[in-house]
């Protein structure tokens, strides 16, 4: 896993995502030397989580009061 600061992520975000897609090596993002996020490439053939399959499937038919 590659470790970088939030500042580095902001500066090189798109290049890091390309690198992640190519290598599959995850990223550990730190802020003030504390881990704040981990970023992984999805596994090949991995399905979306159930909550994503419901996106855009609800329609509001009337105003709620």
Tell me about this structure.
It is a single chain. The chain is of the alpha+beta class and 65 residues long. It has a domain of 41 residues: 3-Layer(aba) Sandwich (YefM-like fold), CATH 3.40.1620. It is 34% helix and 23% strand. The chain contains 2 helices and 3 strands. Strands 1-2-3 form a 3-stranded mixed beta sheet, covered by helices on one side. The longest helix has 18 residues. It is elongated, with a radius of gyration of 17 Å. It starts with a strand and ends in a 12-residue tail after the last helix. The model has no long low-confidence stretch (mean pLDDT 85).
Shape label: elongated
- Rounded to an integer, what's the Rg over CA atoms? 17 Å
Q: Indicate the CATH topology of the domain at 2-42.
A: YefM-like fold
Average of the residue pLDDT scores: 85
Number of helical segments with 4 or more residues: 2
Strand tally: 3
Specify the biggest β-sheet.
3 strands, mixed
Strand percentage, roughly?
15-25%
CATH architectural group of the domain at 2-42: 3-Layer(aba) Sandwich
Distance between the termini: 49 Å
Strand neighbour order, sheet with most strands: 1-2-3
Order of helices and strands: EHEEH
Low-confidence stretches: none
Give the fraction of residues assigned to helices: 25-40%
Please give a handful of descriptors for the protein shown.
3 strands; elongated; 65 residues; 34% helix; three-stranded mixed beta sheet; YefM-like fold; alpha+beta
């Amino acid at each position: 896993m590659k470790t970088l600061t939030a500042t580095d992520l902001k500066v090189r975000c798109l290049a890091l995502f390309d690198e992640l897609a190519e290598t599959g090596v995850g990223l550990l993002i730190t802020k003030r030397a504390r881990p704040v996020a981990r970023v992984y490439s999805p596994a090949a053939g991995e399905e979306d989580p159930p909550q994503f399959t419901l996106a855009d499937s609800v329609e509001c038919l009337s105003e709620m009061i």
